[in-house]
Amino acid sequence: MVKLRLKRCGRKQRVIYRIVAIDVRSRREGRDLRKVGFYDPIKNQTYSNVPAILYFLEKGAQPTGTVHDISKKAGVFKELRINQAKFH
């Protein structure tokens, strides 16, 4: 099973998280399938590769709570509903 979750990067007291698609059994810093964005909690900046996130969500990937909230603010789920409406 694949999850969309945060992977910690940066240095001490200056953390940045990458949003990655990763196998559930992997560690937090384990090998990811694909990098799909990043989140900087200090500057409160996010970047999301929306087509890549949509691809993994359509394939059944489950986002963690934090990634779900970040994606919701970016409007990913609105686009997911639009895409699903087109194909049904």
Automatic annotation (TrEMBL):
GO terms for cellular component: chloroplast; mitochondrion; small ribosomal subunit. It comes from the Eukaryota. Keywords: Chloroplast, Plastid, Ribonucleoprotein, Ribosomal protein. GO terms for biological process: mitochondrial translation. Gene3D superfamilies: 3.30.1320.10. PANTHER family: 30S RIBOSOMAL PROTEIN S16, SMALL RIBOSOMAL SUBUNIT PROTEIN BS16M. This is Small ribosomal subunit protein bS16c. The lineage of its organism: Eukaryota, Viridiplantae, Streptophyta, Embryophyta, Tracheophyta. The gene is rps16.
